[in-house]
Structures are given as structure tokens and as C-alpha cells.
Amino acid sequence: MDWLVGIGAVIALAGVAGLIWCILLALKARKSAANDDDLRLRLQRVVLLNMGALGVSALGLMVVVAGIVLA
């Protein structure tokens, strides 16, 4: 089941890349927000993307664990 571990690692790394992207989006929103309402809307979008990226990363780690257990 080595291929399952490899696929899981790729999925987990995609999730980590998404988390890094969320950090960059939050920093950009903080610098360019005109008022509090604009900042709140932008950060709400970032939170949704952050939760999705965290879910993808967790899914990738579950696939890796499944590959290790089945090996």
C-alpha cells in the first residue's frame, strides 16, 4: 500500500499549501481593508477557505494512516 501513502502525502501537502495561502490572504486583507465591515467580510471568506484547507489536510493524513495500517 505504498501508493496509498504517496497519494495521502500529496493530499496533505495540498492542504498545507491551502493553509499557507489563507495566511497570505488574511495578511493582505488586514493591510488593504478600508473599514471594519470590509475587513470582517474578507476574513469570513478566509475562515471558510481555512476550514476547507484544514479538512483536506486532515483527509490526506487519514489516507496516509490507512496506507500504513494496511501495509
Overall number of strands: 0
Q: Outline the biggest β-sheet.
A: none
Q: How much helix, percentage-wise, in residues?
A: over 70%
Average pLDDT metric: 95
Structural class: mainly alpha
- Domain module count: 1
Q: Assess the beta-strand content as a share of residues.
A: under 5%
Taking all Cα atoms into account, the compactness measure Rg is: 16 Å
The arrangement of helices and strands along the chain is: HH
- Uncertain regions: pLDDT < 50 for 5+ in a row? none
Q: Enumerate how many helices there are, as a single number.
A: 2
Which key features would you list for this structure?
2 helices; rod-shaped; 71 residues
Structural overview:
This protein is 93% helix and 0% strand. The chain has one domain (2-70). It has helices spanning 2-32, 36-70. The mean pLDDT is 95. With 71 residues, the chain is an all-alpha fold. The chain has two helices and no strands. α1 (2-32) packs antiparallel against α2. The termini are close together.
